[in-house]
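Entry: Molecular chaperone TorD family protein
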Amino acid sequence: MLKITDKRPERIAPAPAEGLRLRAEFYLCLARAFLPPRTEADFHALTALLADDLGDLARRLDYPIADELSEFRAAASALADPISLLRTYAALFLTPPAPVPINGGIYLDGSLMGESVRAMEDCYRRCGVERDERFRDLSDHMAVQLEFVAYLYARAAESPAGEAELPLTAGEFLGAFPRRWLPAFCDKLETATRKLGIAPNPYTPLARILRCAVAKDAVPVPDPLAQTERPAPPPLDDRTLHEMARVLRERGLSAEHLRRAGLPPIR
């Protein structure tokens, strides 16, 4: 999902390397878990391996996720086959109109491709990475954000002393973005699960596990988009909406959410 564009060795603030490495593994596990489960290997990883991996890492990192992990184990073990997992994922996160947007910027900005997305992309660039063009979604997808957090922790664990620091830490990124949109994401996930009658659903306890970890690791920072007062943006004109729809469809995404009263079908 991300590719490194700056390979120069850099150092971030000193911290116990083992704890940083374990955090990198933990967030990378969750990043993979929130990608579409397209293969039997994805199904096996989520249903047979993930609970043990998260449990071991959480124990060593002192994350209080025992109840959430038990709920996840129960849901994962009840999934019959890869198709059932993919259907659950699609019903929650993909099928338009998706009841649970998996792009964090929607919760922060109220729309796709807003200022939060640009702020995240700026963080990626400043730290020498960018979204891999083969990943067919936007830069604020949950999995991209979590992979970036894992990258920051891994760099922190491996960085030799005496080199220049990265521009931000994993804790700062967690505080600026996931910490702010995760509560709304979890609420929507629980509501959709109840309303749609989705069971078993491993993603709700996974989201709670993530929320527990973020609550412990995030560094409180000011809202990166609230440094100055901004006037309300003007309504988007039809030409802009059509251009946004074109970009989304080139990336294999639905543009149905861009419809509005009186606007002809977007093609």
